[in-house]
Design a protein that fits this description.
9-stranded antiparallel beta sheet; 7-stranded antiparallel beta sheet; calcium; 941 residues; 10% helix; Jelly Rolls; mainly beta; Immunoglobulin-like
């Protein structure tokens, strides 16, 4: 009896499961779910690699990355290269449960490149689908064999037979692939089912929804609201339902809801059940929603939930090097988190709708989205096809709260006849833009130079946000210039931010070329991160410039008050919802194993500032705060993520280095001048200098050559050398090179005051070498100002230094670094080129205090810099082959290692650095012509 009872309970449980499944939608994958989860299908490729034979292929995938067919970059048509048009035939057997005969069964393809002919058991499932980036489905209920094995066959043409689609989607500036590259699954529905649901959930709690169904039995709906944790929030009893042909429209209101925004992406699940006249549930679906209101107010701005917003955005391709356009949910979350980590709040889908899981990540983690119809420069001139693809785009994506705007193509790739099509399928009636163009309320002009921001033009009353700006290439753009641009964008009333181009280098694994990473020259090398997410320097510059907590630049001096000016640049978060800690630290020397010591740590009380308000906060100063080397301020957001860490030196380099150099060890020292060489010997060192120029020519330590020489070459000094003098005093040898005297005030002949460039080497008896340099100052400087030495690159193993790092800087990309002890190994990496090793070793590094150069043959040395605001130039970066108009700096100081007072700026693919704002100017204001430029260094070998 007990056993029979158990059987009866189990039977009832199974019946309950089947009943629930009969009322809900059951999804069964025939393929894998993404790049890391695939299923092998039978495959035949018509041409190219591994062609003309039946074999296996992983699905989903791009067939080129599986070793089939041929590679093409979309711009190949411009280079008049052959456009390959192979086709692939896929076959896959699957079993269908006999109970499914009571259901409707659909097959869903999330994305196929490009023309797809689908057959079930040898019969066409429907018309051939055209368009590479859109979800499509067929009802295959009548084609299936129930309780038996079925065969799916898909013939995929890489190029479309519709030339309008090829022109829009294939003749592009990105890689094009072939294949079933997104998942394929069966959708099992009850016979009376909801076809789809479109929902508009407003910030005030109002909900309207259209429930589309062809069911003749459906008369009404039941609606419940749940939290994403599954807890019931509200059971709506005050529904208003209107039934028309093909749909039921409902309206109601949710109470006490939390709105959705990127800073607080609150989500809910709306459960909708289709009911017959007796109140029985025919079908139930759940859709994830967020309550938010979007307005584009003419000649005013873009508002979300009544708050004006500015986009801090980036363009993003759906891409991964070894899988092409086949991605994964994990990758979508990883990329979204990286974008959020840069303090961005927006993303533009370039140039096609992404995977569903990417939009879900934007919904849940919080990013504004511009969703885009796929065109590059040429629209879908076939209006009929264009209408179909807009429907597929909007129907799939309509319920995502992250989507604020629809893009009708890209850069003149809009068919204006299609502009009104988006609203036909969008219950929220989101507005449409033409990226790169003035259209209705908006101006989205691409790649403006900094000086066009005045907008003295017929479009000056439009809301301006470039959907592409600061085109990154190699180490140019992105962060280089952003500080200047953002100051304008933030303070212009009609500016609504912008979108950097672009997130990641589009470098693809070439299975036909031994697995190399190919960016098609400079076409795909334009990311903030490398193909696998390797972070370039601009990543951290963006993180600081776009920090929602803006701290005005501050220098710590002896009269430091502890007070900082701050601005809340959040749109939806009060400043005191965040937290901040202060750390006072000391740094050890070049030879210490531990680099940093914390002297004191405390919490900073942030003021209660509403979004966009300004105020102040105070950092507690410990009793001996002046003994600290630096102050660190770390801000954390409401989710526990670091916003940024700001660093402030407390001591000058001279003060900081004062206890790190010892002159107490004395010994014998003498100098000899012979054959135009000044030789200075100590107990274990020998230094040779040119008697004609005073330049260091050779260093020997215990008989071993340290190949530092030919310096200091004076950079910026125009005077002729007049004399070199050698003096001996106090157990030291001094060698001074004097240059021609000049009138102190420019070239005014009447001036009776003179200035003179000179440098002095001081050789100490313990082998320590001091260098003092003075160079006549100028008000405006265009050339490098400082000194330079030679050191063979092949002898460099790495460096350890105290200064800003770990990344190099340019004059228009100074932000994003931190002041501390860093250590980088040598590399010859060129940003954006295969290898993608970061940080790059070579270049300019700011706020130098000391640097220990590690030599390959134990021939390194340490330099202490006692002068404020000095840059270290370490070797000469490798130059990219094709850098566009300005994405390279190809003029460096003479020699290999330099200590300079000014550095160049970096441009972008489309413009010189000087066009990106004041920080990009070639001219630097030095100002004080009464005082020379002074550089003091100590060399320890």
């Amino acid at each position: 009896m007990k056993f029979k009872s158990i059987i009866r309970i189990v039977a009832l449980f199974l019946l309950t499961i089947y009943t629930v499944q009969g009322q809900t939608t059951h999804k069964r994958y025939l393929s894998g779910t993404g790049k890391d989860n695939t299923v092998a299908w039978d495959f035949y490729c018509s041409d190219g690699m591994e062609s003309k034979k039946w074999t296996k292929i992983e699905v989903p995938s791009c067939w080129e990355l599986q070793g089939f067919g041929n590679y093409n970059y979309g711009r190949d048509y411009k280079a008049k290269k052959e456009y390959h048009n192979e086709f692939g035939i896929y076959k896959h057997d699957f079993f269908v449960d006999k109970n499914w005969k009571k259901n409707e069964v659909k097959i869903v393809f999330e994305g196929v490149m490009t023309d797809a002919e689908v057959k079930i058991n040898g019969k066409l499932a429907g018309e051939i689908h055209q368009g590479a980036f859109y979800e499509f489905k067929y009802n295959i209920s009548k084609l299936l064999k129930y309780g038996a094995k079925n065969q799916l066959e898909v013939k995929v043409h890489k190029m479309s037979s519709n030339e309008s689609i090829n022109a829009a989607e294939r003749n592009t500036d990105f890689w094009i692939f072939g294949g079933i590259y997104r998942p394929v699954y069966l959708e099992v529905l009850p016979k009376q089912f909801i076809e789809r649901v479109a929902i508009d959930a407003q910030a005030n709690g109002n909900i309207v929804a259209d429930v589309f169904t062809t069911s003749k039995k459906a008369t009404s709906v039941k609606v419940k609201l749940f939290g994403v944790n599954g807890k019931l929030v509200q059971d709506f009893s005050d529904l208003k339902v209107e039934k028309t042909e093909g749909k039921l429209s409902l309206s109601t209101k949710a109470n006490n809801i939390k709105t959705w925004n990127p800073e607080k992406p609150n989500l809910y699940k709306l459960q909708i059940s289709l009911l017959d006249k007796k109140g029985n549930e025919l079908h139930t679906v759940s859709k994830r929603i967020g309550f938010r209101t979007v307005e584009i107010r003419e000649s005013d701005g873009i508002y979300v939930n009544g708050q004006q917003i500015k986009f801090k955005g980036v363009n993003h391709h759906s891409f991964y090097p070894n899988s092409g356009r086949t991605t994964s949910k994990a990758l979508s979350i990883e990329h979204t988190k990286m974008i959020k980590d840069m303090n961005m709040n927006a993303i533009r889908m370039s140039h096609y709708p992404p995977d569903v899981h990417f939009l879900e990540a934007c919904d849940s983690l919080g990013l504004f989205v511009l969703d885009e119809l796929c065109t590059w420069h040429v629209p879908y001139l076939d209006t009929k096809v264009g209408k179909k693809l807009i429907k597929e785009l909007v129907v799939r994506d309509v319920n995502h709260p992250s989507i604020l705007i629809w893009d009708n193509g890209n850069e003149s790739g809009w068919n204006s006849k299609l502009d009104e099509e988006f609203a036909k399928w969008d219950i929220q009636k989101r507005e449409v833009i033409h990226p790169w163009n003035v259209y209705k309320k908006t101006n989205t002009m691409h790649y403006p130079d900094y000086y066009k921001f005045a907008f003295d033009s017929p479009s000056k009353d439009k809301i301006y946000f470039p959907t592409e700006f600061l085109h990154g290439l190699y180490d140019g753009g992105h962060g280089a210039g952003l500080d200047d641009y953002w100051k304008q964008m933030w303070n212009m009333p009609l500016a609504a931010g912008g979108f950097l181009w672009d997130f990641a280098d589009e470098g693809v694994v070439r299975t036909d070329k031994g697995g190399i990473i190919d960016t098609d020259g400079n076409h795909g090398a334009d990311g903030i991160v490398g193909p696998y997410g390797e972070k370039e320097a601009s990543y951290f510059t963006i993180k600081e410039v776009w920090s929602p907590i803006y701290i005005a630049d501050r220098y710590i001096r002896d009269d430091f008050s502890g007070v900082f000016n701050v601005e809340n640049r959040y749109h939806f978060t009060d400043l005191d919802e965040c937290s901040m800690t202060a750390k006072w630290v000391n740094f050890n020397g070049p030879d210490d194993a531990i680099d940093i010591k914390i002297l004191a740590e405390s919490k900073v009380v942030l003021p209660k500032l509403a979004p966009l308000e300004k105020g102040k906060f105070t950092v507690n100063k410990p009793e001996k705060w002046k003994s600290a080397d630096a102050l660190y301020l770390t801000a954390t957001d409401i989710h526990g993520n670091e916003i940024f860490t700001w660093t402030y030196p407390v001591k000058t380099p001279k003060q900081l280095n004062s206890d790190k150099i010892s002159y107490t060890k004395n010994g014998n020292i003498k100098s000899i001048t012979s054959d135009n060489v000044i030789t200075v010997n100590t107990s274990d060192s020998q230094f040779k200098f040119s008697a004609k120029t005073g330049l260091l020519k050779e260093v020997l330590i215990n008989g071993k050559v340290i190949p530092l020489k030919d310096g200091p070459i004076l950079l910026g000094g125009k005077s002729k050398l007049e004399d070199v003098k050698v003096t001996s005093k106090n157990n030291k040898i001094e060698i001074t090179a004097f240059f021609e005297k000049k009138h102190k005030y420019y070239d005014w002949k009447e001036s009776k005051e003179f200035t003179q460039d000179f440098f002095t080497w001081t050789v100490n008896s313990n082998g320590i070498l001091d260098l003092h340099v003075e160079i006549k100052n100028k008000k405006i400087v265009e050339e490098y100002f400082g000194i330079s030495f030679s050191f063979p690159e092949e002898e460099v193993k790495g460096m350890k230094w105290l200064g800003d790092g770990p990344y190099r800087v340019w004059s228009n990309r100074m932000k994003g670094t931190q002041f501390k002890v860093w250590e980088n190994d040598y590399n010859d990496s060129a940003t954006g080129e295969p290898g993608f090793v970061y940080p790059e070793f070579k270049g300019f590094f700011s706020s130098l205090n000391w640097v220990k150069l590690k030599g390959n043959n134990a021939n390194g040395f340490t330099v202490y810099c006692h002068s404020d605001l000095t840059f270290l130039r370490m070797l000469t970066p490798k130059q990219p082959a094709d850098f566009g108009r300005g994405a390279a700096v190809n003029k460096f100081p003479k020699g290999d290692i330099s200590f300079v007072k000014n550095i160049p700026a970096m441009g972008t693919k489309f413009m010189e650095a000087s066009q990106s704002g004041p920080q990009g100017s070639l001219k630097k204001y030095f100002g004080n012509v009464d005082e020379p430029i002074v550089i003091d260094l100590t060399f320890e070998f």
